Amino acid sequence: MVVQTPVQALSPKWNRPWFSSLALACCLLAAACLTLRAAPLRIYIVTDLEGASGVYQFAQTREPGPLNEKAKEYLMADIAAVVRGLRAANVTDIIVLDGHGSGAFIPHLMEPGAQYITGKPRPGPFLCGLDESFAGLIQVGAHAMMGTPDGVLCHTQSSRTEHRYWYNGVESGELAQCAALAGHFGVPTIMVTGDEAACRESEKFFGANCVTVAVKRGISREAAALYPFAETSQALYEGARRAVAATPRCQPYKLALPIQARKEYLVFDTPSAPGRRVTKEATIEDARKVVDF
């Protein structure tokens, strides 16, 4: 007696060789999808202090003291909301880099589920540990470039000497600098948080697929309409979840090589003298060195 399998019992046409090949291909595709789904999803977060919820004065970001310590708490809350959102979206590997010049992390407020990099010196380029294995870059607490009229605490690298940078003729701030470094590794910027001006700048450089979350609206360089923390925390959490979903649609930000770079900044000949503006130009062969000239 011949025992028919369920497939054979349906119709003789399913016994044809082409169907066997199709069935095998479907099985292999399904296995590949399961493997991709199970693969660790790595996200890299770089933070700054000026764009955090509740921060709007340089007194909160430049000098040690009670205002600075409280501003750091605000930043840690923003980071925690983003990390929780990423974890809810099944991100399994999260690196968070302290990108504020003088440091802004408070260890006992670190949200579980991520690794936090702080302190100096650090080996390699600015975004320590970033490589091709990451699916996306998130910039938390970002600010707009120097000279943005409604940019809260706007500056590029140095707020005191008022640096301004151009790459291939396009003025760029810290948002584009970080994104270009990530772009060197093929990593797209998938989310930006900060004031509305920073979010607007993000869309200009990275397109509409990059998720933005505004936590305040600038009125001037040291004045802002602040949004309640409960609202910004929820928006950051939801934004992180959306950013994971948007990752496949985001493209790395890449500068055409070699990069023709120009920098302008103030030099103070004496402490009391007004600053004089100096210009420096360079050709950069490696996008990882966009600020090293």
Structural description of this entry:
The chain has six helices and eleven strands. It is an alpha/beta fold and 293 residues long. It has one domain (39-254): Rossmann fold (3-Layer(aba) Sandwich). The strands form two sheets. A seven-stranded mixed beta sheet has the order 3-2-1-4-7-8-9, sandwiched between helices. Strands 6-5-10-11 form a four-stranded antiparallel beta sheet. The longest helix is centred in the first third of the chain and has 23 residues, at 66-88. It is globular. The model is unreliable at 1-15 and 31-38 (pLDDT under 50).
Per CATH, what is the topology? Answer: Rossmann fold
Quaternary state of this entry equals single chain
Helix-strand category: alpha/beta
Tell me the CATH architecture: 3-Layer(aba) Sandwich
Percent strand = 15-25%
What's the helix-strand series?
Answer: HHEHEEEEEHEHEEHEE
According to CATH, what is the class?
Alpha Beta
Low-pLDDT regions: 1-15, 31-38
Side-by-side strand order of the widest sheet: 3-2-1-4-7-8-9
Characterize the biggest β-sheet. 7 strands, mixed
Average predicted confidence as pLDDT: 90
User: Shape, please?
Assistant: globular
In DSSP terms, counting alpha (H) and pi (I) runs of 4 or more, how many helices?
A: 6
What is the CA-based Rg, rounded? 24 Å
Distinctive features:
293 residues; alpha/beta; Rossmann fold; seven-stranded mixed beta sheet; four-stranded antiparallel beta sheet; 6 helices; 11 strands; 31% helix; 23% strand
Q: Short summary of the structure?
A:
With 293 residues, this protein is an alpha/beta fold.
